[in-house]
What does this fold into?
Amino acid sequence: MKIVICPDGEQATLLTARVMEDAIRQQPDIALGLATGRTMEKVYAALVQAHHDRGLDFSYCQTFNLDEYVGISASSAQSYRTYMNTHLFSRVNIALSATHLPDGMATDLAARCLDYEKSLLACGGVGLQLLGLGENGHIGFNEPFSAFTSRTRVVTLDPATREQNRGMFDDNLDHVPYHAVTMGVGTILDARRIVVLATGAAKASVLADMIEGPLTASISATALQMHANCLVITDEAAAATL
Ligand code: GLP
It folds into this structure.
């Protein structure tokens, strides 16, 4: 793992966007693995700006998001599809047909999870995977005790994750789904390159576990220690206990 500690969250965000911009410029038809969450909103804003100011071209890219809620339709305000459309896809020159998210409304979820893995393989695998970090150490929605070899599948959300994400659901815990579809830890580890962005004091403890702790399935993000090309971008607040 390489670790870059920026003075603050804003600079960490801009650096993350710059790393992605460079990757797209080097390989215009790259398959990007994308993440959601509050941390990523500013990364996507910076990429939109790069598109407008510096002509960053997304027209040859493919994108694969990590996860989606089960039972939330793509058109709903809370879906990760809506999040991605709002923050990135509708604001840059990418064809919607080149953007992939797991389908949380499918009747045969297991079959669609397999199809998602197949589409990833068909486009040559993820070239650059962007990752956020859950406060319980999840990556995607790989909650504690996910197998390091896990693939795209349906998972039960940890109570802590449902609590962390209630803000997206009118701050009402009853509205937060219990299940999601997520790429597995093994799927994530297949990416040729990984960039993790974790900022703010709330992530300090889990970031230290991820980087310095022992490999453990109880903190999914520790699996990233096994990846040959993983860059962690953070800020002083999140790096406080390293
Ligand atoms: C969410 C997402 C993750 C994200 C993480 C951190 O639940 N499934 O992909 O990285 O939690 O979110 P935030 O940036 O809001 O802290």
Remarks:
- The mean pLDDT is 97.
- The beta strands are 2-6, 31-34, 62-65, 67-69, 99-100, 128-131, 153-156, 179-182, 194-198, 230-235.
